[in-house]
Design a protein that fits this description.
The protein is α+β, with helices and mostly antiparallel strands and 227 residues long. The protein folds into 2 domains: 4-80, Arc Repressor Mutant, subunit A, CATH 1.10.10.10; 84-221, no CATH class. Helices cover 46% and strands 19% of the residues. The protein has helices at 9-20, 22-30, 39-46, 50-62, 82-95, 107-111, 121-133, 148-156, 184-196, 213-221, and strands spanning 37-38, 66-71, 74-79, 113-115, 118-120, 137-140, 143-146, 170-173, 180-183, 200-202, 209-211. It has a 3-stranded antiparallel β-sheet with strand order 1-3-2. A two-stranded antiparallel ribbon has the order 4-5. Mean pLDDT is 87; it is low at 1-5.
Length: 227
């Protein structure tokens, strides 16, 4: 994807044309959970034939929105990086009026979900807010960084991870809550640690993340509003 600081009107128009096709949009949305998927699966998600899907995937690759991983004879597609996921979430936020945001019908999606491999939704926003409120997260020249006091606090409550002194995150505008959650590599690292600790598990059908009773208890002890 083109650098946002250098984008011109022609590049912006090109980006718009990539997103304007519903089949391509469906493929991109299917990958916002951070997974890598084969072309056949993305064709089914978009409701198009394999040949049509291949043409769409080629355009998305050429446009810098997708990356390709080749493993033997298999080819897997994923979003190019978390900036693409953030762009898709931001576009959703800009398009959907407040009264149309998820309500009781899909409360689980609003409660906790994947946003390109990091925790989003009410729980993600509350977790980020608690880190900032306790001064466990600071803003540096390269992004958001976890303070040693934050590392110790999370570890004392059972959240274990490798050295994060050089792992940076960024603020990501949550499309349902319209507030910030923690994204970037740091957000991915902490979310992965929550899975390892059994605080979260994935829904088999969609992007919903399901917190365990123990996970909610430990998050609450860290000052996260889980109500």
């Amino acid at each position: 994807m083109h650098d946002a600081g250098a984008i011109n009107r022609y590049q912006l128009a090109e980006l718009g044309s990539l997103l304007a096709e519903p089949a391509r949009a469906a493929m991109l949305l299917a990958l916002t959970d951070g997974t890598s998927r084969p072309a056949g699966e993305l064709a089914r998600a978009a409701g198009v034939t394999p040949a049509t899907a291949s043409a769409h995937l080629r355009r998305l690759l050429d446009g810098g929105l997708l990356a390709l991983h080749v493993q033997g004879r298999h080819r897997y597609y994923r979003l190019a990086d978390d900036r693409v996921a953030s762009m898709l979430e931001s576009l959703s936020l800009a398009r959907i009026p407040a009264h149309a945001l998820p309500t009781k019908g899909n409360a689980q999606l609003r409660r906790a979900r994947y946003c390109y491999r990091h925790l989003a939704g009410e729980l993600g926003v509350a977790f980020c807010a608690a880190l900032l409120r306790n001064d466990w997260l600071r803003t540096g020249t390269r992004g958001l960084q976890l303070e040693i006091t934050g590392v110790d606090a999370l570890a004392s409550h059972g959240l274990q991870f490798v050295d994060v002194s050089r792992v940076y995150g960024r603020s990501c505008l949550d499309w349902t809550e319209r507030r910030m959650h923690l994204g970037g590599p740091l957000g991915v690292t902490l979310t992965s640690a929550m899975f390892e600790a059994g605080w979260l598990r994935r829904s088999p059908r969609n992007r919903v993340l399901i917190p365990s009773a123990d996970g909610l208890r430990r998050l609450s002890e860290l000052g996260v509003d889980v109500s």
